[in-house]
C-alpha cells in the first residue's frame, strides 16, 4: 500500500478536465493506510477561466487523469468517484463512498489530487486498515473528518470452534448486507472478531447476526478507540529469479513449487493487488501485493538486476 504523491497541474487544465468528467457517459454516482487513515487534498483554481474554455474540455484530458489506473474494473470505480467528487464540489456538499478495496482507494486518491477545489479524506477506522471510505467535497465544506465508520464487536464461545475471516465475512453477508458496506474484519481468536461497518447498518447487524458458523454470537457497538489491533507481522527475504513472472516470484515467496502455484492460478486462488490473476506469465513490479488463498499475502519490495541478467527481488511476507 502506498501513499499518493502530490502532483500540481495548471488550473485551466484541472478545470477543463473536471468539466469533461461531467460530460462522460461512463460516469456516475499508504501502501500506508493509517489511523483514521486520513489523506487531505486541497487545491484552488483561477476565477479567470472562461466558460467557453471549460465547455470545450477534451476527453483526452479525462484519460490523462486516469492514466495508470490499472485494471478496467478499478478504472470504472475510480470514474464513479471522480464524478461524485465533481458533483460534491459544485453543489457545496460532502459525499461519501462505500468501503473501497485498496487498489481503488489508491488510484482514487492519486487522481483526486489532480482536481481543483476538491478535498478528499480516506478513513479505515484504525491504522493499517485496508478497506477505507472516502469523503469528498469542497474544501470549505469538508473541514473535519466525517463520522462515517462504526465498529462492532462480535463475541461468542470460539474456544472449541475457531472461526476464520471467511467464516465471519460469510455470516455477515448472509444477513443480506453487501460487501461494500463492510470494512476490515479484525480477528480476536477465542474472543471473536471486530468489524468495521457503515453506521446506518449497525442496528441491523446487531439484531440480525446471531451465529457464525455453528457458534451463537452477540454483536455490540464499540467506539473506534476501543479497537484492538496489532501491526502486521512480516518477514523479509530475497530471491533471485530469471524473470518477474508471478509463477516464479510467488512460488519462491510462498515456498511452494512452481507447478503448484500454476495450479492455484488456474483455480482462481491467486490475486495481484486484489485482482484475480488469469495468466501465469503476468509480470510483477515493486509495490505489488500477491495474495494466495490459504497462504496469505506477499508484497514485492525492491527489484534490482544482477550482473548475470537476472532479478534480485525483495519479498515481504505477511505472517
UniProtKB/TrEMBL annotation:
CDD domains: S4. Keywords: RNA-binding. Pfam families: S4, YlmH_RBD. Coiled coil: none annotated. PROSITE patterns: S4. Residues 244-304 form the RNA-binding S4 domain. SUPFAM superfamilies: Alpha-L RNA-binding motif. GO terms for molecular function: RNA binding. Gene3D superfamilies: 3.30.1370.160, 3.30.70.330, RNA-binding S4 domain. PANTHER family: MITOCHONDRIAL TRANSCRIPTION RESCUE FACTOR 1. This is RNA-binding S4 domain-containing protein. It comes from Lupinus luteus (European yellow lupine). The lineage of its organism: Eukaryota, Viridiplantae, Streptophyta, Embryophyta, Tracheophyta.
Amino acid at each position: 500500500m502506498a501513499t499518493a504523491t502530490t502532483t500540481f497541474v495548471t488550473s485551466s487544465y484541472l478545470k477543463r478536465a473536471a468539466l469533461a468528467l461531467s460530460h462522460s457517459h461512463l460516469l456516475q454516482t499508504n501502501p500506508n493506510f493509517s489511523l483514521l487513515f486520513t489523506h487531505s487534498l486541497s487545491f484552488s483554481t483561477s476565477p479567470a477561466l472562461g466558460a467557453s474554455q471549460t465547455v470545450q474540455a477534451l476527453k483526452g484530458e479525462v484519460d490523462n487523469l486516469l492514466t495508470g489506473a490499472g485494471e478496467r474494473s478499478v478504472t470504472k470505480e475510480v470514474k464513479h468517484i471522480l464524478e461524485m467528487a465533481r458533483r460534491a464540489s459544485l453543489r457545496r456538499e460532502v459525499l461519501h463512498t462505500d468501503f473501497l478495496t485498496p487498489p481503488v482507494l489508491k488510484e482514487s486518491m492519486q487522481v483526486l489530487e489532480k482536481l481543483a477545489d476538491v478535498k478528499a479524506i480516506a478513513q479505515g477506522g484504525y491504522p493499517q486498515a485496508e478497506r477505507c471510505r472516502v469523503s469528498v467535497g469542497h474544501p470549505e465544506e469538508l473541514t473535519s473528518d466525517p463520522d462515517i465508520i462504526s465498529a462492532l464487536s462480535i463475541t461468542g464461545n470460539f474456544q472449541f470452534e475457531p472461526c476464520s475471516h471467511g467464516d465471519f465475512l460469510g455470516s455477515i453477508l448472509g444477513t443480506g448486507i453487501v460487501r461494500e458496506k463492510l470494512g476490515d474484519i479484525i480477528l480476536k481468536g477465542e474472543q471473536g472478531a471486530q468489524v468495521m461497518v457503515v453506521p446506518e447498518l449497525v442496528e441491523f447487524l446487531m439484531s440480525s447476526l446471531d451465529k457464525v458458523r455453528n457458534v451463537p454470537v452477540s454483536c455490540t457497538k464499540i467506539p473506534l478507540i476501543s479497537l484492538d489491533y496489532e501491526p502486521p507481522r512480516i518477514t523479509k527475504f530475497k530471491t533471485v529469479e530469471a524473470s518477474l513472472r508471478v509463477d516464479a516470484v510467488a512460488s519462491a515467496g510462498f515456498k511452494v513449487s512452481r507447478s503448484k502455484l500454476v495450479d492455484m492460478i488456474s483455480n482462481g486462488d491467486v490475486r495481484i493487488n486484489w485482482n484475480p490473476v488469469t495468466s501465469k506469465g503476468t509480470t510483477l513490479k515493486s509495490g505489488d501485493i500477491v495474495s494466495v488463498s490459504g497462504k496469505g499475502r506477499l508484497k514485492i519490495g525492491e527489484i534490482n538486476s544482477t550482473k548475470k541478467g537476472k532479478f534480485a527481488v525483495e519479498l515481504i511476507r505477511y505472517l
